[in-house]
Amino acid sequence: MEVRSGFLNCAAGVTFSCVLGRGGTGILARHMKLSDFDGRACAARRSRLAMKLGPQPALIAAGAPRPRTSAGNAYPFRAASHFLYLFGLHLPRAFGLWTGERWVLFLPDPGADFALWHGHAPGPSELSVALACPVELRPALAEAVAGRAVATLPALDRETCAEQTELLGRPTAYGKLDALDHPLADALIEMRLVHDHAAIAALRKAADATAAAFHAGIRAVRPGIRESVVRAAMEVEFIRRNMGASYNSIVTVHGEVLHNEEYHHELKSGDLLLVDVGAETFDGWAGDVTRTWPVNGRFSSTQRDFYQVVLQAQQSVIAAVRPGVPFRELHFLSGRLMAEGLVNLGVLRGDPAELAADGVVALFFPHGLGHLIGLDVHDLEDLGDRATYAPGRTRSTQPGLRTLRLNRDLCAGMAITIEPGLYLVPAILEDPARTALAGDRLRRDRLAAFADVRGIRIEDDVLVTNDGHEVLTAAIRKGADAIEKEMG
Questions:
Q1: Could you point out which of 54, 72, 103, 354 has its C-alpha 20 to 30 Å from the C-alpha of 417?
Q2: Which of 193, 225, 241 is the last residue of a domain?
Q3: 450, 460, 475: which is closest to 420 by C-alpha?
Q4: What are the backbone angles phi and psi of residue 25, rounded to the nearest 5°?
Q5: DSSP E strands: which ranges in 180-271?
Q6: What is the DSSP letter of 126?
Q7: Please, what's the largest Cα pairwise distance for the chain?
């Protein structure tokens, strides 16, 4: 089916979808009624940001669709998270402008053929009412920014960066901020680090959908099927709720591959299935959960031993979550606890604190404890360490620490993941250079007994509260006995 170009994506009281591309498009299955859209939270966020910026103009891009095989066959469009935070709708090639006095949203003209292919295209007045913001067409944007020093956040896609460069008269590229852009970036970081009530409600909605997916997935697991069957059973729960996945799902019997996105392997009795899946609400808020299930419904004794090490570490770390705690200290705590567990199992020997501090435990736990979660599954990482590391803190080069995604003190309203894991990665454990630091502290004879373990990770989404924490994804079972009971 041929699809013509068009841009506006919502109509009062009727279903709308984002329309992608120039000279050929695809349609995103992100449908809702504009009458169901509540723009009050976005309007409040724009007001707060305006107070922080004062008279300094700022331009926020929604981004452009990305061709999959041709301009007429694009990947589903998702607006940039900073744009969603402020405007809440997926509007391809839209720009939000703070003029120094007011916010204005600029949209491309839908074109004469839009109604033929996609139905009614609302005018700026309809969208203005829904968004509580003036809406104009894109030709007026160039005049609005002409000759002005306008701050921006470079977009993720090159096409939008090129548009920003042309509009602002200065080069913009993803990952690069000019000094002019720093106050805008810092203001959005400060706001998005602490979730408002609407954001927390959206995170709960994503968590609920993620829980439904995991309940469906665990019931689908059995020997003899492919990983793709379990993935399908889970993701259908998102589609059922008019949502999508917040990242490419990981459903794999090869849990030692941290971001395994292959789904063709057959599930065999005795395998562990690592499942890392999260829902994304219509307006972009993410869930992110990992569980590890025995394919035949029963953990072997060795699998259960390793599983308990990870579970006890995760539960202890979650119990320590509260305002003021440095996230880095939680990472160190998880490393010490897992080192202690491995010592108790005879896989490692020595003092657990030393095994964690000098990187020996990173042979089994090579990634950071977790990350921010919000509008992105790895929230704010488009702004790099400026957002995820507190001022004055720098990234370590030590294994296990160099991939730490968050190095800030926790505060109420912050949402994080807690996801320790143990992995038997051949590329690590069979590399003499990597394992030299362990020396005789790594007992390979004992490790050989755990050959039926490839990777185990347990992850939950946790909201920091005024007096501690709330596990948003607590409905998803993770105790070994509870998992075996649910698998029947």
A1: 354
A2: 193
A3: 460
A4: -145, 175
A5: 244-245, 250-252
A6: H
A7: 74
pLDDT tens readout for residues 296-305: 999 999 999 9
When pLDDT is averaged across residues 202-225 and rounded to a whole number, the result is: 98
Same domain, 224 and 91: no
* Inter-CA distances, 22 with 93, 107, 111, 136, 149, Å: 10, 14, 11, 19, 29
What is the distance of C-alpha 3 from the center of its chain? 31
150: burial class by Cβ within 10 Å (0-12, 13-18, 19+)? buried
Crossing angle of helices 327-344 and 301-319, in 10° steps, is 150
Residue whose token pair is 């996945």: 245
Are residue 201 and residue 148 in the same domain, yes or no?
A: no
| Number of separate domains in the chain | 2
Q: Which pairing describes strands 151-152 and 58-61: parallel, antiparallel, or unpaired?
A: parallel
Query: Residue 378 pLDDT > 80, yes or no?
Result: yes
d(CA 410, CA 111) in angstroms, rounded, equals 48
Please report whether residue 1 resides in a domain: no
HSE of 201 in the Cβ direction (CA atoms, 13 Å)?
7
pLDDT tens readout for residues 130-162 = 899 999 999 999 999 999 999 999 999 999 999
Q: List, for residues 300-337, the tens digit of each pLDDT value.
A: 999 999 999 999 999 999 999 999 999 999 999 999 99
**pLDDT over threshold 70, residue 24:** no
For 159, the token pair is 């096409």
Rounded Cα gap, residues 157 and 108, in angstroms: 17
Its domain, for residue 480, covers 197-487
Domain CATH number, residue 231: 3.90.230.10
Tell me what the pLDDT averaged over the chain comes to.
91
- Strand pairing category for 272-277 and 289-294: antiparallel
23, burial (CB in 10 Å: exposed 0-12, middle 13-18, buried 19+)? exposed
Helices and strands in the chain: count of H runs, count of E runs: 17, 19
The confidence band for 476, taking pLDDT boundaries of 50, 70 and 90, is very high
Last residue of a domain, one of 193, 209, 242: 193
- Evaluate if residue 29 carries a pLDDT over 70: no
**Domain containing 178 — which CATH number?**
3.40.350.10
Q: Please tell me the predicted confidence (pLDDT) of residue 76.
A: 87
